[in-house]
Amino acid sequence: MALDKTYYHAIQIIPDNCTGCTSCVRVCPTEAIRVRDGKAFIDTTRCIDCGNCFNMCQFHAIIPKSDSLDIINNYRYKVAIISASFAGQFTEDIPYSTSKRALLELGFDEVAEESMVTEFMVGLIRDYIRKNKDIRPILSSNCPAVIRLIQVKFPSLLPNVLHQEAPMSILTRYLREKIHNDKGLKDTDIGIFLIVPCIAHVTAVHQPEGAYKHLQDGAFSAGMIYGRIRERLRKLNGNQYNIETYEQGLTWALSGVEAEMVDCDDIRTLSVNGVENVLEILSKVEDHYLDQYDYIVLRSCTNGCVGGCLNVENPFVAMSRIKKMIKNAEHKDIDVSEFKELYKDGEFAVAPLEPRSIMELDKDIKQAIQKMKKINEILVLLPGLNCSACGSPTCYALAEDIVCNKASIDDCVVLLKRQQKED
Amino acid sequence: MAEYWSINPGLEETCKEFLANIPEADVTLEFEIEEKDFVSAGKGSAEVKNVLKRLGIDPAILRRVAVASYEAEINVAAHSNGGKMYCYIHDDFVYIKYEDKGPGINNIEQAMIPGWSTADELVREMGFGAGLGLPNIKKNADFLHIVSEPGGSTSVEILIYYK
Known about the structure:
The complex is a heterodimer.
Chain A: E1 11-13, H1 23-27, E2 33-36, E3 39-42, H2 52-56, E4 62-64, E5 77-82, H3 96-104, E6 110-113, H4 118-131, E7 138-139, H5 144-153, H6 167-183, E8 190-196, H7 199-206, E9 218-221, H8 222-236, H9 255-262, E10 269-273, H10 275-286, E11 295-299, H11 315-328, H12 337-344, H13 365-381, H14 395-403, H15 413-422
Parallel strand pairs in A: 5-6, 5-8, 7-11, 8-9, 10-11
Antiparallel strand pairs in A: 1-4, 2-3
Chain B: E1 2-7, H1 12-20, E2 27-33, H2 43-54, H3 59-79, E3 83-89, E4 93-100, H4 108-111, H5 121-125, H6 133-140, E5 143-148, E6 154-161
Antiparallel strand pairs in B: 1-5, 2-3, 3-4, 4-6, 5-6
Helix pairs in contact in B: 2-3, 3-6
């Protein structure tokens, strides 16, 4: 796995397009972006791939990296797994089964849905909560941006994270076994790809945290696939296809509904979405203020995965569509016995998550205190406008950057202006 | 004047030494706590937490400081006429003092009993006042010292070692 220094991020800055406007600097929840010499750059140790900067940039200077569809041709058997949020991207005149068919025709041998494992996941989560009574609250593990946020800003909460794979990875493990057994294919012949709603999921595919096993071989942006599917749909010309779909499990795309499903007599749940809210809740968990909850569902995007920055539809519209699909879904009994076997064998377990603490000023506490003292001394000299014109998100961050030799007090435009006036 | 002490066994001497000669701290934080301002209450302890994270304090200790300072701050907001937090950060411990403008605690021993509360309607409506504040502070602090003048002000001192 890559070391912190080369931590992979599914996001890149195109310097030619960057105007140095600092919009991205201000919306980053981990203060990972700085503008220096007129261009933004991302501190890879701090970035959690939440996508806030991508959403905010008006100049197409921050773009997501996802894989090119061609890579599927490197494998003999190609499987696409669609995130539950994908169902909300299409207008209601397009049957879900038709959009699945169109996806298949892009060159896959099989299309599987995250929603197939929802029922199993609910059972797994409840089992985990009941088996880990000494840890409260348990924090959901399926939003990769939240996992990374906990690693960098709330390392004390890492033991609270549900140490089991997220649904799409559980499905991947199951499909790998099944295809290997049914078709006699080698692991390297089977390509499993995710259709993902967000940048964090692309990062998670290329750099999974705590993964023991081989998971996916690539991730395709829902937005990119959407365009291709629309093309195919025109060719399919409204044909109906008899394809199995699992609408009942689409709940996974919606943060609130996941919590409701896990909630029962002996398990109290809370659902939180939007990275600012997640930050506030994690701080309260740290204060033991939310110990009365057994399970907290945390999603970085508005409304959960439907709010992912690679989706095309507005998160509220997508949520409304998915809710309707769930309501109209016919109940299907899904045989989860094979999943249960794999779970019993520990196939879905995740290695203890490691902290990636970004907050420390120095490894030596005496040095750290001296730096803190200097920060406070510099802070009183700064104007306190938090204007970001220097390229750091706040005056405090600039003071911190100065003490860590990453900036100079001359970067403060306001001070410079004042000096000019005095001269 | 009523007084209450609680010192973790084994730390009596160190604490006495500290109190006899309080050294100057390199990093200090001050925070005003307004009466019944539950919107802002907790911001002071969040500040303390942010500073300690920057100093690389052990996460388990950090959580103890977080709980003790949060509860103490809520106490000032919920039960007093407002007050102030003074936080002194040293390289081996953190010392936090809360001073309020009254009206004092009538019976400190009683206030230390888990579940015992004098919280009024407003405080309870806000979801506070379960009577666990002071017991929680005691549980998490290495040293807790309360001095209260019934009808006058109350001071709460907390000390937590990093090791």
